[in-house]
Fold these 3 entries.
Entry 1:
Amino acid sequence: MKNKYIEIKNLERVYQPSSKVKVDALRGLNISIKEGEMVSVVGSSGSGKSTLLNILGGLDWDYRGEIIVDGKDIREYDENYYRRYIVGTIFQTFYLIPTLNVEENILLPLKFGKKMSKKETHERLEKLLDAVGLADRRDHMPKELSGGQAQRVAIARALIDQPKIVLADEPTGNLDSKTGAQILDLLNKLNKEEKTTMIVVTHDMKIADKTERKIKLVDGRNV
Amino acid sequence: MFKYAIDLVFRRKLRTFLTSLGILIAVMLMSFILFGMSDLESLIVGQFTEQFKPNELTVGTMDMTSMMGGALSAPTKGEVEQEEMILNSEAVEKIENIEGVETVNRIVSIRGLDIYLEDDDVPYPRGFPMATDISGDSAMIGDLLEGDDLSLDGDEVYVSDFVSKFYEFSNEEMLGKKIILKSSTTSVFSAPSKSNIAKEYELTIVGVTDSGNSALFIGLDKGLEIAADLGGYDSKEEFLDTVGYTQLLLSTDIDKTSEIEDYIVDELGFSVLSTETLMEFVSTITGGLTVALILFGSISALVASIGIINTMIMSIYEQTKEIGIIKAIGSSNIQVLIIFLIQSAMIGLIGGLLGLGVTYILMKVIDPFIVDLLIEQGFTVNNFFNFRFDYAIYITLGSILIGILAGLYPAYKASRLDPVKALRHD
């Protein structure tokens, strides 16, 4: 296990929506995360949680500072490769494609880049469907699923490509506390089974308590 | 990826269908051109070449192409002066003596007469008598459908089968019946005068021809006699010296046809209609028609493209969040571009196939009517539209291409969407 699997050094992100307005979303963030660790990033609204997640998720590259993943600056990766194989993202509102069924939603990332054979894909799909407990709902459409089930589909989708890091942005934000706790348990279980480094962004301390370590953000800095 | 793109197309079925209607209209216009116009030209050319042989020249006193309504060149002073020329016996003799001229047939069109069938009060509404010394089996008169008298003497007359149909007799029944020509008081060609009021000429039908709208043919002698009498001239000679023949039909040595044409126009000052000029005229008309239809087709293709662009931009607006999702899970800009190009190509394909389908059905439905209309106009034709699979494939490919071209800008826009902003989009 690498102690400094993810290293964030002096991360800054400034938004300038207009010439007069300047927002310092991140002001010199320094974080280290171990390989296979499950951490939570907590903070109030506007503390920079989502900005951090967008940058780590490879959606926002307009930052200053350094992010090293597995010994390599993420700027050295191809953007699409990074989003496809290094990270998997889970969103608060699930973001499933409404016209695709459970199975198709889970397999969607593979449509944009395949590194698995048909057999491997099948085995991976079955394993994940079992893990998230949706094997009997593989043909269901998203509108036929409960919030918890939809989020479990999103988790399976994030993991299908065997990413090294899973980012979860308020994964329980749209769920009741019981379902939210179940989702966190699932993430914990998958963290152990898949040995994937997980970063869960949340403002819910009960959820954060279920992770190995909490990273608290205040005004764009970790405290 | 392809399945996902297709899913997006059919997520909004009505909108996809309505957008593809634009392509449908463009495809219909293009199909009518490709399946109909090419045959129309060959049909008209075929019909003319049946009536006009390449070695034949028609000599007249005015520009005959402008008479047909489509002047190929601007009028000149010389042409106006030509109108003073008369095709009299002297002119005929000069033309007969040109080297390479084999035969000269004379034609006189007699205006100002109403055509009646005996025992019937209704005048035949179309055409006028033409007096000629052309024999009954010539291309100009057409085939004799009934009767075997190949030369018109005295009071003999050929009528076209249109006349038989008009009076509801069979061609055979028409033989032996009388045609009465009565001087018309409503003629726009000659001022009414005392001398031509209430004149009547009786003729006997000896043949029925397939000459269509050329209703009556009478012998040259008889025709001149009627024309002179009707115009108040003392003799046929006086008529010829004053008015002259309307047209001369020359049969020439094929090697010298165009030389003779130039000589008659330049040296004698008459106008000449050759098969060659006629074909140019026909192809000018059909060419013009084709250009007009292509123009309409192109305009509707353009309008259809704007429709596709609009739909695609709407679709991108609606799917902004989804674009954000697929980008977040690893799709590249190029892949988003391809997804949207597949969508616009699909709209093009649907429009193209629907357009071809509707055109095919319409062609089957209206073809018999067009064929009837053409047969009525004297054309020999079995079918007007000719559905060709190779053209259908080109049209389909063209529709897909229009879809792709129209989708380029929206697809590019979609591919450049910032995933963070896209995911925040409501």
Entry 2:
Amino acid sequence: MLKISKDRITEIFNTVAESKSLYLPVNREDGQAEFKKYENGMVLSENLNTLRSAKDFFFPQTENLVDFKMEGKNIEVIDVREECEDFVIFGVRACDARSFTILDKVFLADPVDSYYKNRRDHGTIVTMACTRPSETCFCGSFGIDATEPEGDAVCYTDGSSYFFKANTEKGEAFINSVSSLLEDGDTAELEKVQAKTKEILAKLPLSNLSTDSFGGEKLNELFKSEKWAELSEACLGCGTCTFVCPTCQCYDIKDFNTGNGIKRFRCWDSCMYSDFTKMAHGNPRLSQVERFRQRFMHKLVYFPANNNGEFGCVGCGRCLSRCPVSMNIVKVMKALEEK
Amino acid sequence: MQEAIIKRAKELLADGSVNRVIGWKKGEFVYDITPAVFETAEEIDADFVYNELTSANVSKYLVKETKKDGKVLVFLKPCDTYSFNQLTKEHRINRENVYVIGIPGGPKLDVEKIKAKGITGILNITNDNGTLKIETLYGEETMPFADAVSTKCENCKSKKHVVFDELIGEDGDITDTNRFEMVEKLENMTSQERFDFWRDQLSKCIRCNACRNICPACTCEKCVFDNPDLGTDNKAAADSFEENMFHIIRAFHVAGRCTDCGECSRVCPQNIPLHLLNRKFIKDINSLYGEYQAGEDTTSRAPLTDYTFDDCEASIVHERGAE
């Protein structure tokens, strides 16, 4: 497999960044990683995952959809869409890579979301195989192999080198663009590392988390469960879980009055919020119990019901680390499983 | 301590003094502890936990819980008792429906500070005389307890319980901390440096509202930022500057009522030091109106809702200057 020694990875970054915008996880002052646009001198984070997910690249927290300009009785509609430039995201983990497949099912299904598609078409995803999964990881429960991530190209490490493999044409183009820096490498050590990671994955505390009790056919039983009241008791109704989640995809569309026109923008919404899906007749979910239930029913029941059984969670564990009251999908699944 | 707390909770449930108990519930790992209401001794035996990782201030849950029938038992750390008093003062808690047991507080640990050291795969954390022994999937790690202390406990303002019906353990004193150190640093910056500091910090905000929703001083039935009928709601702003304003407006709204419990910074998923905004207000109130600690009692008039001839004039802002 083609490889480059670890201490030369910046050469890859510099080469890619010459022709395209390159984004990669970089550590902040507080030790948390976030995706940043690469500039010379930046160091690839060794953290397992970024604090926020990678969904912003295709589905940003806020984006302008259309502008309206008003002059007298005339309203001019201004299409603000522009063809996006090619970009590369390096170091996406297996969980986040799968989240793109899930988001695709929402945004690329008819009617296609042209804003999302534009960015998706121009983005190349280079994933990074995991070697140090965390106790909060449970991607395996959703059929994800952290040692073999999806993505246009995959990067693996054996500790001293980075190895590259292409999965798609975009991935091949990425590898070709840096091929002068790569050399053929022996994968014996990499195979050992991969085997060791698999061992760790098998003994993660959440490795036995099962999805058997969930899916579209369980709708009535789960919707009516008496557990929701107790589970939601501590929930603050904040949006942390939804905003750090790589698969949460609900949004709101609003008009912003600029004084002489309107900016129509969309922004992430959260089913935890009191005005979520508020319509002319009012709000369909009046209590936090109902809002809380919505989030987990969506991921574990409604989404699979509409998408051939695929769940709307990738087991990245961000909600486990970030919820202010430590209430999360794992606790919900385990509680609902108990009959 | 956990044993004594559990014992007392079960006694009070058994003799009918209380119907429910608010405390902390064990999670999947050693650290993911959730505030919870317990109704039976069995539930308490199975899941009640109190240790260095139970940092959540549960006093705000009483707004909801004391409106229910029956009496609820709550365990409050010293800092939580200030929030309790403030909520009582604002008539948000029905005092007759709650029985308060004061328990020793921190310093509590922030597991994120452990993870920030690159320690991952955490299976267990034990405190061995000031050294944390952290059992992980990748072997044992150690680090000083002091390096993992929660930001909210770094400048503990009080070991004294300002309200309780009974105590478990000894009561402490109001502590003399240098909690305004960082505020002073910010004050000594030029206005441009200070502006840059806050823009840098607040631009990390994802508007999850965790700070507001955890805050014991934020108990409005409907926040202006949530009300689509007012035109002031902005769950995500079209202009990033509005996110910054959200925090400043919120700090103004809780000024004089914020007890400095530190929950805002504890829960912020982006690690924004929000408590510094509140501390600046506390420091200013102290210097302009005389020493005042919100939540110290339930009867005194707060400086910002009271009028005296000695009050500073509005021109103080001009006199003090911008820098």
Entry 3:
Amino acid sequence: MPLLDARDVHGGYGGMNILNGVDMAIEANEIGVIVGPNGAGKSTMLKAVFGLLHVSQGEILLRGEPIHNLPPNRLVQKGMGFVPQEYNVFPSLSVKENLEMGAYLKPGNVKRMLSRVYEFFPPLYDKRHQPAGELSGGQRQMVAMGRALMAEPEVLLLDEPTAGLSPLYMNEIFERVKEVNAAGVGILMVEQNAKQALAIADKGFVLAAGQNRFTDTGAALLADPDVAKSFLGG
Amino acid sequence: MNELVFFINNVVIAGCVAGSIYAIGAVGVTLIFSIMRFAHFAHGDMMTFGAFMVLLLTTLFPSAGAAIGIPTPLIMLPLAMALTALLAVGIDRAFYKPLRAHGVKPIVMVIASLGVTLMLQGLIRLFAGTGGESLYVDDRKEIFRLALPIEGVRVPVVITEPQLYLFALTLISVVALHLFLSRSRLGKAMRAMSDNPSLAQASGINTNTIVAVTWVIAGGLAAIAGTLLSLDVTFKPDLSFFLLLPIFAAAIVGGVGHPYGAIAGGFVVGFAETLAVFNWGILLRPFRDSLPDWLAQAGNLAFVGTEYKIVVPFFILVAILVWRPTGIFKGKVI
């Protein structure tokens, strides 16, 4: 049974459909990457999975259990974590308090998970008493991922984690994503840096106009001349 | 030296009294703003309601305090805080929550709170009448006159019992609020929701719980402020309504949505008021001989007359909005 299984998902905002039947499945411990042109519905799909968007047709299953249209706090309880692309930290809270909020529903986790998150992201330990709003973009992204990890999710949804970061930080974030995944967390991420993202992906989903255009392993998509021509810039 | 004591009585003590009440009121206003993003105009009447509950309970059990040796109204305060908190949560459920569910603009909430104000005032008047009433139903208000052990000082420093309780309770409330916001899981979640409501939700924080907790705290604090104000003077149905302006000035001076700023803002406004109406001529009196005639002869050197005290917070409010809309502590702009 796949960890996360989305079948024929339709949905949108206020009557306007953006998703017109998306299929997506990742197994436990896999990295799934969603790529595609602007307006293809990549971020919208992630939001639909996390209950932030009404799914009008189709279904989304977490370990076989239907989860579409559940509120986000229920999904956190069921083992899902979400890192939005923007506004993904609490700026006036300290780094440590930001992380604590991630474990809000599991207060027993705080101590154990804090030390794990600091292991994943050593720079955060040194800045733990600093307000998150004062950190650089890359460090903020670490806080955001760390916050989501605090609840010990089985699957982590990342919306363009490298957007706006310098190449140096970009590589660092990709490394961290691989490490988090190696620690047993399934990943579903949307990425603009398609080549780099597909290189670490077990499954890749190329969306266009709210539908799957190509679905394969990351390596196969990278090797596919059609994908390269239309979506990876040659 | 008598003049200095006069200054202490009329500016330092009076400023602390006004400042404490404004501060406790402004904290409530600012917390409500930071969580629900609207200016809660019914806050003054929530204060009056708390004082009214104390009056009611004290009239019912006038001798409850005598056994322990503290004024009965203070014994009733925790109960009144609980009742006011209940009222606040009830008002939210009945009026504000349905509006929030419709996703209305903040201005609609503000107008709704104006309606709640009129309603509360009417209700309180219906039961309490329109006149003033002392909260000291059965006890006597103690007044302490502390003579300074300095030669030539005849005027004592005057402080009343309720003023001392006011200072003590303000201090306790501020420390308790600080510990709550900085240490407790719920307090941090409140700050998190103030920072970023959608991320708070994505973290699994139940925003309805946070809203309820905010009303409980704001209601409890409103009861404290209203009761202590009524103890210091007398209970009147429109007493706290007239505090609305200075309280909003305090919240804005401190930076809206910033609890520590609201406390600082409360004292800024309180002291600005007492300093503005203080007759500075009194402090010049000892130097009368060395001053030019026109200054020595001047009768009243106050910036504004006591009857115009209300213009001071208004002036501060306008000045802050024009020159530093984020307030001292960089709050959110209304």
